[in-house]
Amino acid sequence: MTGTLWVAGPLICLAVGALVLCLVARWFPARLRPARNTSLAAITALVFALALGLLLPLAALTGAAGETAGWEEYPTWQSAGANAALLRADPGAVLVIGVALALGLLVAIYSGRYLALDRRYETYYPLLLLLVAGLVGMVLAADLFNLYLFCELMSIAAYVLVALRRRTDTAIEAGFKYLIMGSTGTVIMLLGISFVFRETGQLALPSLSGGKAGLWTRAGLACTLVGLAIKSAIVPLHTWLPDAHGRAPSSISAMLSGIVIQSAFYAMLKVGLGLGVGGRTLGGILIAISTLNMVVGNSMALVQTNTKRLLAYSSLAQMGYMMFGIGVGLRYNSPAAIQAGFFYLAAHAAIKGLAFLSKGVAHFYCDTTLVEELRGTAARLPLVAVTMGLALGGLAAVPPLAGFAGKWFILVNAARARSLAAYAGMAVMALNSVLALGYYLPLIATLFTPPVTGIKPARIRVSPWMSAPLILLGGLTIAIGLYPGPWMEWTALAGACLLGWGW
C-alpha cells in the first residue's frame, strides 16, 4: 500500500498554513489590528482542525493494513528517485500526530487571549504550526536523513518559542540552554546517521533488511539514540527541560511536556528497532532507564517552589512510567503492555496540557509564579482551581481520573510478565507514585486555601478563549479515566505493530 498523498496531507496543511499565516500577519489591515491576535489564533486553530480532518482517512488506511503488517506494508509517500524523501504512516505515528494536532488546536484557541498582552504573536503562531509540522514529519519519516531534518525543524521552532518573551532574562537563558543542549543532540544524531550510511549505503528504515549490524552501524545507532534521548529529556540528558518548560509561555510548556518530548521518544523507538536493536534488548534498556526518570523527576519536584518547574520535573517521572510500560512490552513480548504505555502517552497529554494551561490562566490574571502564590485561587478563579486540581489528581493517579487508569494498566501488564525485572520496576513505580503525593497533594490544598490576608478577593471572569480549552481537557481527564475502553482500542494497533518490528 504505497504512494498515497494522504500520508503527507497533515504535514502539507501545517506547512502551507504557517506560510499563509506569515503573510496574513504581515499584511493585516491597520483598522483591524486591535483584533489581530484573536484573528491569528482563529486561523491557526482552523489550520489544526483541517490537519486533523486530513488525518482521518490516513488513520483508516493505516488501520486497514492490520496488526501484523510489516514496515513496508503501511501507507507511504515518496518523491521520485532511488534515494527520495520517504514518509510512512504506521499506527504509532498516527496516534502521536493525532494527539499533537488536538493539543495544538486547543493551545491555539487558548492563545487567542493568553497572547493578548504580548507583542510577538505574529511570530508565535507560524512557529507553533512549524513546531507541530516538524513533529509530524519526524514521526512519519521512514529514512534517517529526513527524520533528522524534521527533528531539527521542530527543535528550532521550540528554541524560539521558549525564548519568546525575550525581554525577560530568564526566558533568554532557558532558550539558550535549550538551544545548546538540543544542538548538541542534533550534531551527535547527524554523526550517527553518517556512520550508518558509511556502512550500509542507505538511510531507509529498516536499514539492515534482516542483516547483522556492523561496527559502524552500531556506533551510528548509539549516537543517534543519544541525540534523540536528549530531545526526549531522558535522565541524565534532561537538564534543559526544567528551565525550558519553566520559562516558556504556559501554552508552549503544554506542547513541550504534553507531546514534543514523547514524539522524540517514539522516533527513538523507530530508529532503535529499525537499525537492528532487538525488542528484548531495547525493552531491557527502557526498563532500567525508566526507573531513573521516575526517581529523579519525583525527587526534584518535591523541593520546587516554582509551580512550572515542579510540573516540568513531574514530566520526567511521567516519561518514566511510559517508558516502563513500553519497555515491559518489548522485553517480554506483551502487546498489551505497549498498548498501556501508548494509552498513558495520550492520557498524559490531556492531563499535563490541562495543568500548564490552568497555571497560565492563574499567571495571566493574578501574576502567580510560586506555589505559595496560588493560595486563594479557588476564591479568585474557581474554574482554574477545579481544572488544575483535576490535572494534579490525574498526575497523582487519583481514581477515577485518566492517570489512574493509565498507571493501573501498566502495572497489571507488568505483573503478567512474571519477571524479576518487571516486579522491581513495578515496585519503583509504586513507591514513586506514593512519593509524588508529597508535592501533588500540598499543591491541590494550596489552590483551595483562603488567602493569607483573610479578605475574600474578587472573583475574576476568565475569557472564553482560555476557559473553553480548560473545560474540554478537564472533561477528557475524567472521561478517559471513566471510559478507557475506546482509548485503549485506539492504542491497540500501535502496540501490536511496534512489537512486530522488534521480534
Tally of domains: 2
Q: N-to-C SSE series?
A: HHEEHHHHHHHHHHHHHHHH
Give the neighbour order of strands across the main sheet.
1-2
The number of distinct β-strands equals 2
Helix vs. strand class:
mainly alpha
Strand content: under 5%
Low-confidence region ranges: none
Major β-sheet, in short?
2 strands, antiparallel
Write down the overall geometry: globular
The whole-number mean of residue pLDDT values reads: 89
What proportion of the residues is helical, as a percent range? over 70%
Distance between the termini: 22 Å
Rg, nearest Å: 22 Å
Count of separate DSSP helical elements: 18
Defining key terms:
18 helices; 2 strands; 503 residues; mainly alpha; 2 domains
Quick structural gist:
The protein is mostly helical and 503 residues long. The chain contains 18 helices and 2 strands. The radius of gyration is 22 Å and the shape is globular.
